[in-house]
Design brief:
Ferredoxin, about 20% strand, DUF362, iron, alpha/beta, two-stranded antiparallel ribbon, single chain, 4 iron, 4 sulfur cluster binding, eight-stranded mixed sheet
Length: about 375
């Protein structure tokens, strides 16, 4: 059994944010969706005025072929909570930058339906926030922004009166992990917004590892990779830094330069998240289950790296991400998983050593989005 007392930051409880946590134990008296509902109530989500308000529930519908994404049952529990309080919820996400099953609104909705998301299964409609081709956006000023002055956010996200993030907490090959800030910042960016965030982080090919298989050329949406004499090269004038080639390379030959670029990506994610949540009621939920090494954007998912931990909720997305990261890193790696071995108490850095996940949380805290200090409260 894992004890979480050591995860509570006690330096100054007056500024520490409250993060609520529930394990995944259930019986005939309370199933897991009911337990999530109790978590939301206990964490104070019911304090939000939902009456006649449009409530965007931002989640990831999962790339076709991926099975680690959150089941629609979780979304239904959140949507029902909103509807019971007079609100008008809808599920939403923005289109992807890379080639895949969610690159336009029609394909995106087909993917959502394929993965079980529908008005019948979730109790609410689906709206792809940045429109048919990913260019229906609103330029939103970033208060205190150092890297982005105006974030390009999907219009439907900004049209909502209330914003709720429902996040599958998992690994990520560039951000290190995909938590609430990643779900909000990158996920709510339009196609141009995603390009702006990825723009500085451009990978290179370690030629001695490359075998010229061409997987990177097939995945690149911008014709930025070519293979000559069985060696791939990346044209940085075309590359947008999306990182898809990194994920598909079977020999780990495509790598991110260890410099400021990955840190800047994480800081841009924080600034985009700030643009989304600033000035309106928000609430954040993260489920630390099926913690796959990489993003749900992959058309596959590797085995979970740790045992399932539970469900977390908070008004503070920074504290929520910190608590979830601590909870994951407190777990032993599962035998045979990608994170197996000596992780140095950081599974995500062990999986993706060229990433810097703390930079996102530090920058979000600097922007005033929340605090990395938290009090973990188990229900």
């Amino acid at each position: 059994m894992i004890h979480y007392d050591h995860l509570r930051f006690k330096e100054d409880l007056q500024v520490a944010s409250k993060v609520y946590w529930a394990d995944l134990r259930a019986d005939y008296r309370e199933n897991l969706p009911q337990k999530l509902t109790r978590l939301m109530k206990t964490a104070g989500m019911g304090q939000i005025d939902f009456e006649d308000k449009f409530a965007a529930i931002k989640l990831h519908f999962g790339e076709p072929g991926n099975l680690a994404f959150l089941r629609p049952n979780w979304a239904k529990a959140v949507a029902d909570f909103v509807k019971e309080r007079g609100g008008k919820p809808f599920l939403t996400d923005c289109n992807t930058l890379y080639v895949g099953g969610r690159k336009n609104a029609l394909d995106h909705m087909d993917a959502a339906m394929l993965n079980g998301f529908s008005p019948l299964s979730t109790g609410c409609q689906i709206i792809i926030a940045d429109g048919l081709k990913g260019n229906d956006e609103v330029e939103v000023p970033v208060r205190g922004g150092e890297y982005v002055q105006k974030a390009k956010i999907g219009r439907a996200v900004m049209d909502a009166d209330v914003f709720i993030s429902l996040t599958h907490f998992k690994g990520h090959e560039e951000a290190s992990f995909g938590g609430a800030l990643k779900n909000i910042g990158m996920g709510c960016g339009s196609r141009a917004g995603k390009m702006e965030q990825h723009n500085a982080g451009k990978p290179h090919v370690a030629q001695d590892h490359c075998v010229g298989c061409g997987a990177c050329t097939r995945i690149c949406a911008h014709s930025g990779v070519t293979v000559t004499d069985r060696k791939a090269t990346i044209d940085h004038s075309r590359c947008v830094g999306c990182g898809r080639c990194i994920a598909v390379c079977p020999r780990d030959a495509i790598r991110v330069n260890w410099d400021e670029t990955v840190t800047n990506l994480n800081r841009k994610i924080a600034e985009y998240a700030q643009a989304v949540v600033d000035g309106r009621p928000c609430f954040h939920i993260s489920l630390v289950i099926d913690v796959s090494p990489n993003c749900d954007c992959h058309p596959e998912n590797d085995a979970a790296i740790i045992p399932n931990v539970g469900m977390f909720a908070s008004f503070d997305p920074v504290a929520l991400d910190m608590a979830c990261a601590d909870a994951v890193n407190a777990q032993p790696p599962l035998p045979g998983a990608a994170a197996a071995g000596d992780c140095g108490h950081d599974h995500f850095h062990h999986l993706h050593p060229e990433t810097d996940w703390m930079s996102c949380l530090e920058h979000a805290e600097k922007l005033g989005m929340g605090s990395r200090e938290y009090e973990l409260i188990k229900i």
